[in-house]
Amino acid sequence: MRSRYRNLNRIAALDPERDHLEIYQISVGLEFPWDYTRALEFALFRTYCVPSISRLLAATGEFENRPQKRYDDTSLLMAEIAAHGYDSPRGREALRVVNRAHGRYAITNDDMLYVLSTFIYDPIAWLGKYGWRPLHDHERLAAFHYYRAVGTRMGIRDIPATYENYAAFKHDYESRHFVYSDTNRRIGNYTVGLFAAWFPSFLRPAVRLGVRGMLDEPMLRAFGFDPAPAWVGASAAAGLRARAAALRLAPPRRRSVLGISKRNRTYPGYPTGYIPANLGAPAPREDLPAEHLRRA
Predict the structure, then answer these.
(1) Is residue 210 situated within a structural domain?
(2) Per the database record, which ranges form the ER-bound oxygenase mpaB/mpaB'/Rubber oxygenase catalytic domain (predicted)?
(3) What is the model's pTM?
């Protein structure tokens, strides 16, 4: 059992500000890879509760026509940055792809700040409920410092200087901007459909119900979704806690899986033969309303 916590001991010995990349890589690639993947899926899903975000996504048509590719592009680019480091050649290339995609559209700085915040705090909240061990304070702070560094390189302005202030920004932003809109519902339905498509057809109705069972009340209201029966969420939570209990008895992972996607649906050969420049959304449609385009 002592070896089960050797990564935690390493994390405790590091400085969460100076060594934030190493700590984040240990947490995501060795300690909680499956949980981070699921939590970041729901973190992105959460951002679609904001009408200004969902309107742009609906206008581009990417979620309607290529939801799997958009999901894969986002997850792979973020994994490239984390696996190789934001200042590595491969990390800088991934950031250029991300910045080029965002730079085409009229996205407010506050919306960018909010999306970035979900990458920090939503996985922390997930792991607080379903992680096989509690997060160390260094892991929480390292996630904050890591994404603050990434956000700076994305040109996001006014990123709060402390973990607590950024968490307060996220809470306040959601309280003001989580309101129902038709585009929220459309993008929400496309995303639930994407999640369900990963399973055999006979399981898809149960998956759709299960996803609704995992959403909190503000998300349900913003999407206009009917809540699932209470037993659905309770069953999902019990299953995740049972998984966590079993993982406590498992040996520690010896090789990081960060940046390794064995079952990528859009790019089945990834990472072999691919570079970050191969990823990313196409140029905006010619008929996209001017309100969504960044002015030169």
Answers:
(1) yes
(2) 59-242
(3) 0.92
